[in-house]
Amino acid sequence: MKVVSSVSLPSLTAAVTRLQRQLDALSHLAPGQRCLTLSEAVEAPPLIAWLAAQPQEAKIYWRGRRNGEEVAAIGIAQRHRLDRMPDADTLDRLYRQLLQQDGDGDLRLYGGVAFDPKQPAWPEFGQAQFVLPRLELRRQGEQAQLRLNLSVHNREWSQELSDAHTALQAVVKAAPLPPLGPAHLLSRQDTPNRARWETLIGQVTHPSFIDDTPKVVLARETRMRTSAQPNPWTVLHAWQLLNPGSYQYGFQFSEQHTFISCSPERLYHRLGRELSTEALAGTTVRGFNEADDQALADALLSDSKNSHENQLVRQHIEAQLSPLADYVGVEESPTILKLNHIQHLHRGIRAEIKAGVSDLQLLQALHPTPAVGGLPRDAAMSFIRQREGFDRGWYAGACGYLGQNESEFSVAIRSALFSPERITLFAGAGIVGDSEVEAEWQELNNKLATVLGILNGL
Ligand SMILES: C=C(O[C@H]1C=CC=C(C(=O)O)[C@@H]1O)C(=O)O
Ligand SMILES: [Mg+2]
């Protein structure tokens, strides 16, 4: 029989006080140790609302697709920002050094890498940025932990203790999320526009191109100006309610710019040497009723263009993982992954990676997959870089966290960047030989429908 504890969890304020006491008792760090985490059980507030209310930068929200774990993190104990993509050896050294610092084995660096290291980086985000947050609220069901991370990376221990005190003192209670409206759309600009899209599809599907480059995922940037800027955390919250089975995350390194995503796509999840990834490509809309919805799903499963889109992703992932793994297994028949407005073809892929293979090797092997880049990777990336007409930045990049025993990354599609002057939305579609201009343009619109619905509700 399960014994239900009658002892209630401490409030956030009480947990902060307890952490302050733990901090007071810490005058030194054990020799050789570089990081330390203090933690307290806590009765979790609504995490996004708590995060939105905090005065401290940076703010990170993460909710994985797997087990409902939710994280809200604030402040920075360590920041690793790369403005140019360093070579693999430098990255590998940095990564191993970071993970060696791990005190309780559960330290996580949250962040992301851009889609294309050869495109100009988004200011504030960089080509890659990972942070060890100062404070993390991790919630799993009713259980939550408030974690305070301390680090002596590039600094004195006494300074670190004093900064940690300041961060604890600045924590405030959750407040209701600011409402979305009222606001209205002032302007909208699509890059590429419809005419340019037609040209690009013509170039990609031309026999002389497609024979060597069977798939290019072309994307569109939609810039919108509204009469009042909605709070990005309120938008993320509304989005997550509509797609509860997707990854949900947000990165705000300063108050100016916030990148949010409600992505259905996993790049990979690694637990020890067990790896789980997927081929997610091929799209149709949802039906108005159950019969309609099933008919659309059946049509998607038997459609040759969409099957081809998915197969190319699957084959590439399998080939990329094989040299790094003792075993790779792929679901032969795709299944349907249903979202609020659209449905996708999905193939689960599992692997047991070889001992010693690092997350950076995995990131380099898997990212970007042909679900967002194309095939062959270099030719498709070069086409996108030269012709698409905007910098993808973190859209279609990889966002998540690195840990010693466990790491997880999502592909940052279905995403939006909030800037002082505008909101930028992104959507892409896999272009293959049988692609049709209008159908692929509609697919972009379908992929934006959920977030546009939220923003139109302003
Ligand atoms: C590139 C995107 O979606 C990818 C993921 C799923 C299905 C896709 C498709 O059917 O084209 C795309 O490959 C995006 O949403 O921006
Ligand atoms: Mg498609």
Overview of the structural elements:
This protein has 458 residues and is an alpha+beta fold. It has two domains: 12-169, Anthranilate synthase, CATH 3.60.120.10; 186-456, Anthranilate synthase. Helix content is 31%, strand content 33%. It contains twelve helices and 20 strands. It has helices at 12-24, 47-53, 88-100, 157-169, 194-205, 207-210, 232-242, 290-302, 304-321, 359-366, 377-387, 437-456; strands spanning 35-41, 59-63, 70-82, 108-113, 128-140, 143-151, 185-191, 215-226, 248-254, 257-261, 266-271, 274-285, 325-330, 335-338, 342-353, 374-375, 398-403, 406-411, 415-418, 423-431. The chain has a 20-stranded antiparallel sheet that branches. It binds ligand ISC and magnesium ion. The ligand C=C(O[C@H]1C=CC=C(C(=O)O)[C@@H]1O)C(=O)O binds at residues 217, 219, 265, 280-283, 309, 344, 371-372, 413-414, 427-430, 447. Ligand ISC is lined by residues 217, 219, 265, 280-283, 309, 344, 371-372, 413-414, 427-430, 447. Pathway: Quinol/quinone metabolism; 1,4-dihydroxy-2-naphthoate biosynthesis; 1,4-dihydroxy-2-naphthoate from chorismate: step 1/7; Quinol/quinone metabolism; menaquinone biosynthesis. Pfam families: Chorismate_bind (PF00425). It is an enzyme of class 5 (isomerase).
